[in-house]
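Q: How do we represent a protein-ligand complex in a form that can be generated token by token?
A: Start from the inputs.
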Amino acid sequence: MKILGIETSCDETSASVVSNGVVVLSNQTLTSLKEHARYGGIIPEIASRRQIELIYPIVEEALAKANVTLNEINAIAVTTSPGLLGSLLVGISFAKSLARSINKPLIPVNHVHAHLYANFLRMPDEKDKILPKLPAIGLVVSGGHTSLYLIRNFKKFNLLGSTRDDAAGEAFDKVARILNLPYPGGPSIDRLAATAGETQLTFPRASFKDSFDFSFSGVKTSVLYHVQKYSKDKNFSIPEIARAFQQSVVDVLVERSINACQHYRINTLVVGGGVAANSMLRQRLFNRAASLGIYVFVPSMPLCLDNAAMIAGIGSVLTQRQR
Ligand code: KG4
Ligand code: ZN
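Then emit the structure tokens for the protein with KG4 bound:
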């Protein structure tokens, strides 16, 4: 079974063909990120205008790269939520018209669930890659979402907790802005933090009694106050602040997801979303989980960020009976 996936929920325009819900035959992604950088965040109008121009060529490219014709496609999967309304509309209208013109089913996909499905995909050169098994705990950490799920099957994501304010990626982006680092903030902070040594500086780690919820607005404000108070000090160091901030976010993400695994007695943890690209998060999760016999899965870099392969992948499962 070959599914064409289409993703346009934020600044990316992406199309992909996935075979049998696992093998990524193509995954073509273009982003308008650079055009937003000078505004310090995504401008929805710029994103959707660019997507209107890119959607047709990117779908053609994905089919050509996969060496598949439209007639060989069994269904079209498209992100229907959550996301920027104008951007979603571009993908949905295109996918809907295309599905109707070739008389194939259209599968609506939740973008956040798809981020976790990215772990269940194989690139063509990853034939021997070990895939996770369900049930699993899923941690989604992106620019707009920070949520923990219990996944028993791909049609049923049980939400255990989510952020009460800023998402983890949003906190990275806002703190980068406070520190005058380029947008998007996650990669900038990740790179800079790696240049700082161990630090005694700490920022708060929020937790809620009997809850798997998150909160990242406190740590962001705390960084702001720190900068306002100490920016004239001779020991003031941006890399040190970046590292201390990253450490506090990573600690919370690691502890909360390991706690969820232990609470539900599940030894598989799958992580997804842009912040899953963070080097400290990856390293700490693997270290902490290994000592507890928990298997951690994080997608390869192109599958961490927004992409259509994860949409096509979960779309295949949604067309079938439950696994
Ligand atoms: O999943 P994604 O590509 O888009 C959304 O669905 O939101 O995630 C984008 C987010 C941005 O906030 C970006 O700063 C963050 O992921 N990000 C990172 C890293 N790379 C991207 N955060 C921390 N460390 C990184 N290396
Ligand atoms: Zn995303």
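The first strand starts at residue 2 and ends at 7. The chain has eleven helices and ten strands.
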